[in-house]
Design a protein that fits this description.
three-stranded antiparallel sheet, alpha+beta, ArsR family transcriptional regulator, globular
Length: about 100
């Protein structure tokens, strides 16, 4: 896959992770649940891609990622993450949210 192709899907996946958390109960979900939802949406990424993107989103302050058990990461959407989902904030590396 080309770099542009990988970048496109990475940015799309990051936005979709934020959108899924925005719709989740209490704005939180485990990385494995998010992977399953992304896979059902046709995202070509691996579990490693989701884990890497989850950590990146945490570093950007868009989610809080915490290890709740061995191999289980719980992600919680932050207010800044909600602003990205609503299109109020733009973060390089995350696809810009459009009209729904």
């Amino acid at each position: 896959m080309s770099k542009a192709y990988n970048d496109f899907y990475r940015e799309e996946r990051r936005l979709n992770i934020l959108r899924l958390l925005d719709r989740a109960n209490a704005f939180r979900a485990t990385a494995s649940v998010l992977y399953a939802q992304l896979d059902a949406m046709g995202d070509p990424g691996s579990r490693d891609d989701v884990a890497t993107d989850s950590q990146w989103l945490h570093e950007q302050g868009l989610v809080v990622a915490e290890q709740v058990a061995d191999g289980v990461t719980l992600l919680t959407l932050t207010e800044r993450g909600q602003d990205v989902v609503s299109g109020k904030t733009r973060v390089p590396g995350v696809k810009r949210a459009g009209l729904r």
